[in-house]
Amino acid sequence: MSPVMYNLLNVVLILVCVVFGAALLTWLERRLLGIWQDRYGPNRVGPFGTLQIVADMIKLLMKQDWVPPFADRLIFIVAPAFAMFVVVAAFAVIPMAPGVGVVDLNIGLLFFLAMTSLGVYAVMFGAYASDNKYAMLGGLRAAAQMVSYEVFMGLSLMGVVMLAGTFNLRELVLAQADGWFIGPQIVGFFIFFMAGIAESHRTPFDLPEAEHELTAGFHTEYSGMKFAMFFIGEYVSVLMSAAMITVLFFGGWLGPAWFPPLGWFLLKTMALVLLMILIRGSLPRPRYDQLMSFGWKFMLPLALVNLLITGALILI
Amino acid sequence: MIWAYLYNIVFYASCGVTVLATILMISRHNAVHALLYLIISSLSLAIIFYLLGAAFAAALEVIVYAGAVMILFVFVVMMLNQGQRSAAHEAAWLPARGWILPSVLAAILLSLLLIGMYSDQPLQPYGVHGVAVKDVGIALFGPYVLVVELSSFLLLSGLIGAFHIARKMPSHMSSNELEEVDHG
């Protein structure tokens, strides 16, 4: 197979797997939450309810594609597409196994941070274009939350970068051959994990779409496939956070040889996704000011201290 | 073969997008639309940086300018939520004859640039060579360490100022007095 064909196959397969994986995740999450909350969850359509995704997809596709007459039409349409675009684009730099991965950037980690920081725009412009007070409040909350949590999301990763001496994600994985970074960077892992959940604004950090206060937050006016873009985008970003944690802290595809590298990568990512779903099922949602002061007064100093200690230990 | 020209095509396309987006940014009446064009302009500028070999600068352009500074702009504009009325105001403030002098000045700059580019002795173009993150770091903490320290002073004073403004009012002031302070 020619290299161009191989790359093309890589791109298409990863894209399809990511999007379908995210769709499957919606079913998995509802099912697991059901089990943990002592009920069944969706179990009617197909074996174990797995075809629920198909049913949901048909429902969303059949819905009228409605743009509110008071909305800023162009921005209203582009915002959900942009939400999907940034998370899928961030997947491009994640190395899944030797030879599996879309692009091998020297600034891979920075590219990932850039894409997550652009993700705020989809929410903000979606909220602005809706011209709805609930959407506006949700958008403002999302902007403040994501900008705050982005600060120490970047800082928490610098410890890993200092240990490995590179921004290249493939080299970062290879640098963990002697030991995963979860050991020396356990604090960094904790901070990044929290920030990852906050960036994908899921419970307990789902204040931008807190349904008892804001109807549905920034996507109140969205329906049909446009809503689905925001919805699936959230699950893609869950997958992305989990994959990124795997690459940075759990040695990516590295593992005993009796299992293929890609298998190890998927296994670790899946375990982290399950952990995120469990957190959603078990933690309550904080108040908005509690969320912000937790970020600025606890997580940021913690990230700075972690960075300081890591730097000092490297210099010694 | 088109691949040989791909670099040039991407470069000139992103240059064109940058210029166009910046012009549209200046001429929009709706503040949010103007910001949207400003974001597009800084994103395409990041592509230009990347193509010129400064990948680190490109990433920072996106993370810092597009990802943080612009978001604060959008945040404030959204919070004020001016809508149609302010767009009409903007349109009234910027009549067509207000554009004449800036356009003449911009045209002079453009003609200078074109003369410089197409004269017999062209301006020395910068060679394209990669600048890695490590080079930037070594430069910052080597010859430019004084500048880094000075900018940290600046940031510290900004931080103290922000702390002072956001500080809670002393508790002995009654709520009436606070109201007066608010409405100043």
Please write out the topology.
The complex is a heterodimer of chains A (316) and B (184).
Chain A: H1 3-36, H2 52-62, H3 73-91, H4 108-130, H5 133-164, H6 169-174, H7 186-199, H8 211-214, H9 224-249, H10 261-282, H11 288-315
Chain B: H1 6-27, H2 31-51, H3 55-80, H4 83-93, H5 100-118, H6 133-141, H7 145-166, H8 175-183
What does this structure look like?
Chain A has eleven helices and no strands. Chain A has helices spanning about 5-35, 50-60, 75-90, 110-130, 135-165, 170-175, 185-200, 210-215, 225-250, 260-280, 290-315. The longest helix of chain A is centred in the N-terminal third of the chain and has 34 residues, at about 5-35. By secondary structure, chain B is mainly alpha-helical. In chain B, helix 1 runs antiparallel to helix 2 (about 30-50) and helix 2 (about 30-50) packs antiparallel against helix 3 (about 55-80). Chain B is extended. The model of chain B has no long low-confidence stretch (mean pLDDT about 75). The interface between A and B is medium-sized, with 27 and 23 residues.
What overall geometry of chain B do the principal axes of the alpha carbons give? extended
Question: What's the CATH topology label of the largest domain in chain B?
Answer: Four Helix Bundle (Hemerythrin (Met), subunit A)
Helical run tally of chain B: 8
Biggest β-sheet of chain B: count, sense, barrel? none
Calculate the terminal CA-CA distance of chain A, rounded to whole Å.
49 Å
- Uncertain residue segments of chain A: none
Report the sheet-strand fraction of chain B.
Answer: under 5%
Helix content of chain B: over 70%
C-alpha-based Rg of chain B, rounded: 23 Å
Query: Helical segment tally of chain A?
Result: 11
Order of helices and strands of chain A: HHHHHHHHHHH
Q: What shape does the CA trace of chain A take?
A: globular
State the domain count of chain B: 2
CATH architecture classification name of the largest domain in chain B = Up-down Bundle
Give the count of structural domains of chain A: 1
Residue-averaged pLDDT of chain B: 77
Q: Structural class, from helix and strand content of chain B?
A: mainly alpha
Residue fraction in strands of chain A: under 5%
Q: For the record, what CATH class of the largest domain in chain B applies?
A: Mainly Alpha
- What kind of oligomer do you see? heterodimer
